[in-house]
Amino acid sequence: MSETPQLDGLADGYVPHPETAAKRYAEAGLFTGRALWQIVTDTATRLPDAPAVTGAGTDGHRTLTYAELDRAARARAAGLLSAGLRPGERVILQQHNSAAFAITLLGLLRAGAVPVMTLPAHRISEISHLAACTGAVAYVTEDGRRGYDYRNLATTLRERVPGIRHVFIDGEPGDHLPIPDADTADVALPESVDPDLPALLLVSGGTTGLPKPIPRTHDDYVLNAALSAEITQLTAEDVYLAALPAAHNFPLCCPGIFGTWTVGGHVVFTDNPSPDSAFDVIEANKVTVTALVPALAQVWTAATEWEPADVSSLRVLQVGGSKLGLADAQALDAALGPVTQQVFGMAEGLVCYTRLDDPRELVHRCQGAPMSEYDEVRIVDENGDDVPDGEEGELLVRGPYTIRGYYRAGEQAAQSFTPDGYYRSGDAVRRQETGHLAVTGRIKDTVVRAGENVAADDVEENLTAHPSIRQAAVIGVPDADLGERISALVVTSHDHPPGEPIALNDVRSFLTDRGLAAFKLPDEVHIVPSLPITAIGKVDKKTLRAELAKENA
Ligand code: AMP
Ligand code: DBH
Asked: Transmembrane ranges (predicted)?
């Protein structure tokens, strides 16, 4: 290990790999000791004049080459250090997709600071929780030009979390300070990092409780980027569109932004993933790869019918974050050519991909196979015993790029790991003989109706096959007779006449015809204009349940 500078308590509350495991990963060549920011400095040496980032949408259309991006990041690092930031300190980063986001992120990394990767949709409750829990000293965000004024959030944050010494604003700073840049001749940047300490902290999706910080080290994140780039067959010719919020693991590193920078490709940012805007960006920049959540993939599929923009440059369209239904996967390929790649990942580590040469049938029916042969996946029953292939169980995982613990998140979060270091994903999956996994639901996402366990996902997937239903969420509602009754909240499809009801009996007989057991049939169906979504765009059942409970109180 290189000389460890004073890293401001960064290691406190961090759970590293046990020494034997770390040694094995290093000996296998998986851990390389490079700093995460070296991905960009190395590419800048090889391909200084290649385009590295372009900001589309509200960001203007500025393109930076690798040499320019590297220079801008160093100037930002120098500015941040001059302003009093110290290596190892945690900094809350919250910016929309833009070239500015890329420069600030790299500037923080280059300064040795540890960015906490929050999403634009996070608000004071999540931001103050993450700031307090990580011991963050600074908040870097932007002005109000994208609809929400983060300067107000910054003011409240300073009142609530006294540890926040600095607020820096991209754009009009208002009562705060602009993000500083400085001459690198005047400020020495740290030349090395401790590669097995956290480089950045991702934020868990938070389907239960407040989000938890996820420490990803230089070694593991460099590996995550490289393996993902290889599986997606990325080269310097590729143009990756960051359309999902860039701070999320999926667009950030699977292969996303860091994977594209690893191979010298071009990252285009947009803060508007709707097809009327994104399709033009794809055409203008000849985008070859992008990533979406299933709800957006559905909208893109439909939009190919009416959007005039030419999106034929797309080679791979990754879909992940929640389950992509079979019919939706098929429809996406039918609309755009065989571009779908399913991605089943978690910010905690493990990422599964369908491979580009997998048969399309397999791509449509499963969520992918682990990216590394060093991923140790177990699928277990409620007693913790392994289930045979083909049977459903909870996915447990450990491996070179999967965390051993959350960062400073307390006793309860420690329950997410087994004594021998596996992360308990909470996902219910089945393994096929090929090693591919099919996600069947969340282990706790069940309705207990009249003593029978009904998996919400099973009913939801069958519901969305109904021609009038585009999206569905199934929730258990407390019921005097049944214990819980099955409530289906549905968003109607484009073909369904607006305002027209959907009859419960019609839905029940449709599901019965599809072979669904009688005890799984919904007891009620409600049409809703939309389902609440999380910061990245997954259906937010926590909020749905709370809303339903309020209505039924
Ligand atoms: P996060 O906490 O945001 O990292 O979310 C990770 C979780 O998202 C996983 O544990 C799964 O529950 C879910 N997820 C991600 N990708 C998929 C997918 N392709 N299919 C089903 N669920 C997914
Ligand atoms: O949902 C996720 O967190 C996710 C999905 C796809 C993820 O972290 C990833 C790929 O890396």
From this structure: none
- C-alpha torsion angle, residues 267, 222, 141, 153 (rounded to 10): 130
Q: Which of 208, 319, 322, 365 to mutate to test the pocket of ligand 1 (most atoms within 8 A of CB)?
A: 322
Cβ(407) to ligand 2 under 6 A?
no
- DSSP 3-state assignment of 368? strand
Q: Which atom of ligand 1 is nearest to the CA of 249?
A: 4
At 395, which helix (H) or strand (E)? strand 393-398
For residue 416, the tally of other CB atoms under 10 A from its CB is 18
Query: Quick check: 251 and 243 in contact, CB under 8 A?
Result: yes
Nearest to 251 by CA among 343, 167, 362: 343
AA letter at 21: A
Cβ(438)–Cβ(325) below 8 Å: no
136 CB under 6 A from ligand 2?
Answer: no
Residues 6+ apart with CB under 8 A from 145: 58, 171, 172
Query: To the nearest whole percent, how much of the chain has pLDDT over 70?
Result: 97
- Cβ neighbour number for residue 510 with a 10 Å cutoff: 19
- Give the binding-site residues of ligand 1, using a 6 Å CB cut-off: 204-205, 320-323, 342-347, 367, 425, 427, 439, 442
Q: How far, in Å, from the CA of 345 to the mean position of ligand 1?
A: 5
Q: What is the mean pLDDT of residues 509-532?
A: 93
Look at the block and give the residue holding tokens 């965000």: 141
- One DSSP character per residue, 264-286 reads T-EEEE-S--SHHHHHHHHHHHT
Q: Which pLDDT does position 537 carry in this prediction?
A: 87
Amino acid residing at 122:
H
Q: Is 325 in the pocket of ligand 2 (CB under 6 A)?
A: no
Distance CA(350)–CA(345), nearest Å, equals 6
Can you say how many angstroms the Cα of residue 104 is from the centroid of all Cα atoms in its chain? 19
Cα of 513 to ligand 2 centre, how many Å? 34
Among the atoms of ligand 1, which is closest to the Cα of residue 348? 4
Among 87-96, 150-159, 162-171, 532-541, the least confident range: 532-541
Is residue 58 over pLDDT 80? no
Cβ of 345 below 6 Å from ligand 2? yes
